[in-house]
Write a structure and sequence with these properties.
heterodimer; A: about 110 residues; 4 helices; B: about 350 residues; mainly alpha; 3 strands; extended
């Protein structure tokens, strides 16, 4: 709840080229809510991702600059999102080497959430 | 990226140490709940009708819920009757409309409520991530509604059936003046009265929750501060205090001798209202007895570190018992008889609550 509240406080500002920190902050707090809290809470971030990619937001975009604009927006979200995913995977591999476990995925969790 | 690292590393690291092997708990949650197959998954733990969340939210958030759900339709109404509410400009084709942007900010609540309503297994706590959004949507709706009242007010005061007779002119002029003077207070009173009403109903809900559901906590309190001291007193295990000692000089009651009795606290159908071991004095065991419930109940952690616990947990984790995988637990919510004790148990207290509400 707290992570979603902070993430939305960032995401509610209109998205804009030139304001990458907004994308970064919102992504980080949505991800934190998902990792530390409950992974399904990521569904709340769907409109944010949509706006990030397809809605002009605070930007003024003429038809001929549209593709350039989209590449910027895509880059912001890609950096924020994939960066998180890469760290997640690399750390899983690191910990796998550390304790020499045979399987990456342990048995089913008894947590019903 | 750096900050993200800060969350993921400790989460995976701590979970893996506590389980004694690599554990990515967020993935396990998804795996069990979505890819569990037909035998496993959340529906094992009960299903509810589609209107569960609506009923629950109205209990907890009263007036805020209809406001929050009406926020998106209200935005559409405002678009037609009060377009200037979101700013005094007309967006060009190269810009986003403020209505699109606000609409996108109102959708997460609908998505969340929709997804959860579609799941057969429903729980009150599942709505918590969306509580801030619920309040946000309701606040936006109130803001838009206040705009409608202003529009209606302007319509009314500019109404064509204004009396133009010179006899009434002064009177009517004064009336408009009065209207305008009170205008600000009409609008703020509307929003303020809703906030006050919501707050009053919410506070009465808090009081009602305490009034109707306090028995598990009260029983725990009574057990520790009345029943156990009485037991120690009648068995002569309390220090003898000279008669006439003032109350403030009475020594604090020491409950440590209670463990001599080897007592057990038994929970029947109250297992899910048990407020936790934290409120049970040390030296008293807590066990379950069989009730109508036929699902799986939790077990005790091992007191000694069992065989087969990974050396990772033994070396790096303060309580390596968490890494032990017991054989008497299952992920199918099947009843496990070894988690019960049989009544009548030797030297035990039993908590049973029966209420007309359950």
């Amino acid at each position: 709840m707290y992570m979603i509240a902070i993430a939305c406080a960032h995401a509610f500002q209109p998205s804009a080229v030139g304001d990458e920190s907004r994308t970064r902050s919102a992504t980080i707090f949505f991800a934190a809510g998902a990792i530390v809290g409950w992974p399904f809470a990521l569904a709340i971030a769907i409109p944010f991702v949509f706006e990030e990619l397809f809605v002009y937001g605070a930007d003024f975009v003429t038809p001929d600059s549209r593709s350039l604009w989209f590449s910027y927006r895509f880059k912001y979200l890609f950096n924020a999102g994939l960066g998180a995913a890469l760290i997640f995977v690399s750390h899983s591999m690191f910990l796998l080497l550390l304790d020499g476990a045979k399987s990456l995925l342990p048995g089913t969790s008894d947590r019903n959430r | 990226m750096v900050l993200n690292h800060c969350f993921q590393v400790p989460v995976i690291g701590i979970d893996s140490l506590a389980c004694g092997k690599l554990s990515i708990v967020p993935w396990n949650i998804i795996k069990y709940n979505i890819f569990g197959g037909s035998d496993r998954g959340p529906t094992l733990y009960g299903t509810e009708p589609w209107n569960f969340y609506l009923n629950n939210l109205i209990l907890n958030f009263n007036c805020i819920v209809p406001l929050a759900l009406l926020s998106l339709p209200s935005l559409a109404i405002t678009y037609f009757i009060d377009r200037k509410r979101l700013g005094f400009y007309t967006p060009s084709v190269n810009q986003s409309s403020p209505f699109t942007l606000l609409g996108l900010r109102l959708t997460p609540l609908y998505i969340w409520l929709g997804i959860l309503t579609l799941q057969p297994h429903k729980e009150e706590r599942f709505m918590t991530p969306a509580y801030p959004l619920l309040c946000f949507n309701a606040a936006v709706c109130l803001y838009l509604m206040r705009g409608w009242i202003e529009v209606a007010y302007i319509k009314l005061t500019n109404s064509p059936y204004r009396v133009s007779s010179s006899i009434f002119f002064t009177f009517q002029y004064r009336l408009i003046y009065l209207y305008q003077a009170s205008r600000a207070s009409i609008f703020s009173n509307f929003t303020f009265s809703l906030v006050v009403a919501t707050s009053l109903i919410s506070v009465s809900r808090i009081l009602a929750l305490w009034n109707y559901y306090h028995s598990p906590l009260t029983v725990a309190f009574d057990f520790q501060f009345n029943e156990l001291p009485r037991l120690l007193n009648v068995s002569g295990l309390l220090p003898v205090v000279p008669a006439g000692t003032p109350k403030e000089e009475m020594p604090r009651i020491d409950l440590t001798p209670v463990k001599e009795f080897n007592l057990t606290l038994c929970l029947g159908k109250d297992w899910y209202r048990f407020p936790g071991h934290y409120l049970v004095p040390n030296g008293i065991k807590v066990e379950f007895i069989k009730s109508e419930f036929d699902g799986m109940l939790p077990r005790h952690f091992e007191e000694q570190v069992p065989e087969g616990v990974s050396s990772l947990a033994k070396k790096w984790w303060l309580r390596p018992q968490t890494a032990y995988v017991p054989t008497d637990l299952n992920d199918l919510n099947k009843e496990e008889p070894s988690h019960y004790v049989r009544l009548p148990c030797f030297r035990s207290f039993t908590i049973f609550t029966d209420s007309i509400y359950s």
